[in-house]
Design a protein that fits this description.
Elements lengths: L2 H8 L5 H13 L2 H9 L6 E4 L5 H8 L6 E5 L2 H14 L5 E5 L11 E5 L7 H12 L8 E6 L5 H16 L12 H10 L2 E7 L8 E8 L2
Parallel strand pairs: 1-2, 1-4, 2-3, 4-5
Antiparallel strand pairs: 5-7, 6-7
The structure holds S-adenosylmethionine.
The site of S-adenosylmethionine has 16 residues, from loops.
Length: about 220
């Protein structure tokens, strides 16, 4: 995505802080491009669980994707900021943002994304969410997870420090609850009959982030 497009998306948001966050996130985080590549060529609806201010939807439309995007997040402030941006973008017929908990998923079938969300839930809620999210996949859909994984590495400790400051800043009110190990994600997804691929996805950050892609076997 070029600088002009990043700036255009950032300008949809309300204030200087939000616009700076959006510009930086779109410029530095490879997760949106990775997601766009995975959903390319299908027109299945996308359910973005823990969508924050809805950036993934804007990224996808700016890159020419046309599938319906439904984002949900339990933080009313982020949904309000995201909806204001949506109205300015004129994309409100294709994109929707709802304030809801991860336990209240709408009955869609398509692709599902969980980008940097799971570790804000307790271990039992993570497992339950993986199971329900799997039930929202279409036969050609994929479950795209990006998350920090619990490992004995300096990157994992760097991530915990970053999370401490994110929580202290008020951006993520509840803060991290449980950092999953790779097997805590892989095993339930494989048990649900999905083919699971895992690779590091951290861009130029020091964080211990991975991309986990799970699809129904064909
Ligand atoms: C780090 S942000 C990621 C935002 C977005 N997925 C992205 O990558 O741009 C994590 C999001 O998960 C949301 N979240 C955490 N727990 C949640 C829950 N129980 N139900 C819904 N959303 C939740 C937070 O409000 C926050 O917006």
């Amino acid at each position: 995505m070029n600088r002009r497009t990043r700036q255009r998306i950032a300008n949809l948001y309300d204030n200087f802080l939000q616009r700076s966050y959006v510009r930086g996130k779109l410029a530095c985080d490879p997760v949106y491009a990775a997601t766009a590549a995975l959903v390319a060529g299908t027109n299945l609806p996308l359910l973005d669980i823990g969508c924050g201010i809805g950036l993934l939807g804007h990224y996808l439309y700016a890159q020419g994707h046309t599938q319906r995007y439904l984002g949900l997040d339990h933080d009313q402030r982020k949904i309000t900021a995201g909806r204001a941006a949506l109205q300015r973008s004129g994309l409100d017929a294709m994109m929707e943002l709802r304030c809801a908990d991860v336990a209240e998923l709408p009955p869609t079938h398509g692709h599902v994304t969980l980008l940097d969300v799971l570790h804000y839930l307790a271990a039992d809620r993570q497992l339950a969410l993986l199971q329900t999210a799997t039930g929202h996949l279409a036969p050609q859909g994929c479950l795209i997870i990006r998350n920090v994984l619990r490992e004995k590495t300096w990157r994992f400790h760097a991530t915990r420090v970053e999370e401490f400051f994110l929580h202290a800043s008020g951006w993520i009110p509840g803060g991290p609850q449980h950092y999953p190990s790779v097997d805590e994600l892989r095993v339930p997804l494989e048990n649900a009959g999905l083919d699971v691929r895992i690779r590091p996805l951290r861009g130029h950050t020091p964080f211990n982030s991975y991309l986990i892609v799970a699809r129904p076997h064909h």
